[in-house]
Every structure is written in structure tokens, then in C-alpha cells.
Amino acid sequence: MGKTSNKNFTLIHNLLLLLIFTLALWVYGLTVFVGSIPKIENIDDTTETDGIVILTGGSNRLDTAIKLLNEGKAEKLLISGVGQESNLASILILSGELPDNIVDLLDKIELGYEAQDTMGNAEEALKWVNENNYKSIRLVTANYHINRSMTEFAKLMPHIKIIPNPVMPNELILDNWWQHGPSKKLLVIEYNKFLVSQITRLFK
């Protein structure tokens, strides 16, 4: 009886140590992940690419992508992950700032309706890239989302040059983020998704 109790105690002790180690490793990884989120002032916003791909779902992305298109940074713009009920007019209404010549840009903007997640965005973008025979794209998404997006896109497009173009969303606070509930929740969720994408990439 005593030996069984000792074995059970040892097992529980080892499991607790493993749990504590795993939690500490996760917290450390989260800290590194947040620290790796690109600073907006370090963006390469001058290199021209064949196309621009914007991933829907956050503030300031559309304005940034249209501004880049208007500046001649690419031939076309793909807005990936658009809802089935949306059209270009309804999407542009959501933009805070549109250039005066937006009408001249309409034939350069295409919508992608198939993507439901980041992997879907990459698959949709790959199809668009192949159809247009592009060799390079600029990827526009939120700065907290750019690392996972680059992972998924690079996995499907190792032959394509991808310029990351992170955008700072209004809803995210990086300074003392652990004290800001919405930012903390957003970053923890994104970090977990990033871990899954990295693990998935290792086994493929």
C-alpha cells in the first residue's frame, strides 16, 4: 500500500512539475511573440511588388492597401476573405479615407470570397497570384497577425517574394498590454494560433 502511495505521489509530483514547466515556457513564448510584433515605423513601404493582398478583419488595413495601390506600389489589389454578402462599394464605404481618384482604381481591386481563415487567405492569394503570373506580393494585415500570416503564405508560396506590411489596429495597445483586457485577450488568442501554425508547419 505504501509503495503504491509513493508511486502515485511521485507521478502527481512529476505531472505538476511538467505542468509548471509547460506554463512557464508558454508565458515566455508569449512574451517573445509580443516582442516580435513589428513596429510600424520599420515597415518597408517603398518596394514595389506585382500585387497587394489585404486580409480583411481589422481596422486601418483597407485604407493602407488602397493608399499603396494609389501610390503605384503594385498593379492590382486583392481583398481576401470578403463576406458573401459584400461587394466593392459596401467595402469601400468602410474605409476612412479614400483618394479623390478612387474611381480610377476600381478596376485594379479584386475581391476574394472563399477564405474563411488565414490558411484560406493564403490559398485564395496563391490562386490569384498564379492567375496573374505574379512573382511578388505585398501582404497587408494587422501587425499582431503578420507573423502567422507570413508563415502560412510562405508555406504555400516559397517561390514568391512576399513583403510584409503590418498595420497597427486601433483596438490594440502594446504598451503594458497585459493591463489592457481586450489587447491581452487578442494577443493570447493570436499567440495560440501562431503556435498551432508553427507546429503544423513542422509536421508537413
Short description:
The chain has seven helices and five strands.
Would you spell out the secondary-structure blueprint of this structure?
Blueprint: H1 2-36, E1 51-55, H2 61-70, E2 76-80, H3 88-93, H4 102-105, E3 109-112, H5 118-132, E4 136-142, H6 146-156, E5 161-167, H7 181-202
Helix pairs in contact: 5-6, 6-7
Characterize the structure shown.
It is a single chain. It is built from seven helices and five strands. It has helices at residues 2-36, 61-70, 88-93, 102-105, 118-132, 146-156, 181-202, and strands spanning 51-55, 76-80, 109-112, 136-142, 161-167. Helix 6 links the parallel strand 4 and strand 5 (161-167). The N and C termini lie far apart (47 Å). The model has no long low-confidence stretch (mean pLDDT 89).
- SS class: alpha/beta
* Assigned CATH architecture of the largest domain: 3-Layer(aba) Sandwich
The proportion of residues forming helix, as a percent range, comes to: 40-55%
Largest sheet: 5 strands, parallel
H and E order: HEHEHHEHEHEH
- The name of the CATH superfamily of the largest domain reads HUPs
Question: Features of this protein?
Answer:
204 residues, alpha/beta, Rossmann fold, 2 domains, five-stranded parallel β-sheet, 7 helices, 5 strands, 50% helix, elongated
